Here is the input.
Amino acid sequence: MKRVVIHSDGACLGNPGPGGWAALLEYGTTERELVGGELATTNNRMEMQAALAALRALKEPCEIEFHTDSEYLRNGITKWIHGWKATNWKKKIKNRDLWLALDAAAARHRVDWRWVRGHAGHPKNERCDVLATTEAARLRTAATPAQRKEALEKFKAGQSGGADLFPVG
Here is the structure.
């Protein structure tokens, strides 16, 4: 299996509010940055979205050293998810859609989930933080107040977070 190192981060300007996510994938001497966001979301969803995008970007099963500053993400995917699956997801679980997708994406790989302290000077974590925060700010600036309000109302109602208004790319 190829060995890949991934660093990720999520950011939100308000919680909920405009959010951004970023992941940095390293394979040998090659690095690839992934960035995206939603107009109305939460920080936890952006942390999860970064991990999901990074895992989905890999074209074949890999051995992954995954660095995140989100204890929510790390604990959820390494500890809590086993209980949720054992009870067939009977409890109301926040972000269930992303947990299901993340579990499926991670299943093709061997992932070593590692926690790093955020905002502690770790260069790759800091890079992801800058990318995620910049994306959140871009979305906030690109949207009108009416668009932001509509996206927030939809998010709170459990609908789309507004990604369709400002697609990545």
User: Anything to note?
Assistant: The two ends are 30 Å apart (CA to CA). Strands lie at 2-12, 17-27, 30-41, 62-68, 110-115. Helices lie at 43-57, 71-86, 96-107, 123-142, 145-156. The chain has a mean pLDDT of 91.
